[in-house]
Amino acid sequence: MTIDKQLPSTRTTELDSICLKAEVIPVLAIQRVEDAVPLAKALVEGGIMVLEITLRTDCALEAIRRIKEALPHVSIGVGTVLTPAQYRLAEQVGADFVVTPGTTEALYRYGVESPVPMLPGVATVSELMVGWQYGYRRFKFFPAEASGGVKALKAFAGPIAEARFCPTGGINLDNADDYLALNNVMCVGGSWLTPKSLVDAGDWNAIRRLAREVADRFHH
């Protein structure tokens, strides 16, 4: 296996510059395409500049297109990418980065060649080591709470101190501080910023307030 020697430095820099914009990245599963732009605008007006939109819903790609058009200065991650084919779709809709829940050799190989950086999902040291050999230094830790949470990330820092993570899964306002206090955590992801009840009701003001609270509390 040949690894591009430039990959660790350039990819790491790209992901770091995105994650530096936000300590909390909202993870959005958009059910109705007409919600996409007002939801994204409410989060951005609240001070959140990086959004992850998952491919778990039928209208996800169209939602991403609309958000990119309406808010070109916002960094958009495409989440729940499971295959190289989905990775290609993310490239086509203008993703700034791609996020996977777990990672396969096929995704790593595709990610090495892609112009769009990948934040690969890992839950164990062995998975981390596979990513490492492909040149990856930044990872999503998922499902964070179920996989050992803060204690697991502290343990990862021993053998692989250079790796940094965006933990997602079970993270909320109560425990986000514990994760962000770790040296190897660059940001956290979560869906608590966009409660389904508020989105269903189209209560963008309430979401703007939640985003503002989070941005004020966790801002660098």
UniProtKB/TrEMBL annotation:
Pathway: Carbohydrate acid metabolism; 2-dehydro-3-deoxy-D-gluconate degradation; D-glyceraldehyde 3-phosphate and pyruvate from 2-dehydro-3-deoxy-D-gluconate: step 2/2. It catalyses: 2-dehydro-3-deoxy-6-phospho-D-gluconate = D-glyceraldehyde 3-phosphate + pyruvate. One of its GO terms (molecular function) is 2-dehydro-3-deoxy-phosphogluconate aldolase activity. Pfam families: Aldolase. The keyword Lyase applies. It comes from the Bacteria. Keywords: Carbohydrate metabolism, Lyase, Schiff base. InterPro entries: Aldlse_KDPG_KHG, Aldolase_TIM, KDPG/KHG_AS_1, KDPG/KHG_AS_2. Its EC number is 4.1.2.14. Signal peptide: none annotated. PROSITE patterns: ALDOLASE_KDPG_KHG_1, ALDOLASE_KDPG_KHG_2. The keyword Lyase applies. Homotrimer. PANTHER family: 2-DEHYDRO-3-DEOXY-6-PHOSPHOGALACTONATE ALDOLASE-RELATED, 2-KETO-3-DEOXY-6-PHOSPHOGLUCONATE ALDOLASE. Belongs to the KHG/KDPG aldolase family. This is 2-dehydro-3-deoxy-phosphogluconate aldolase. It comes from Halomonas cerina.
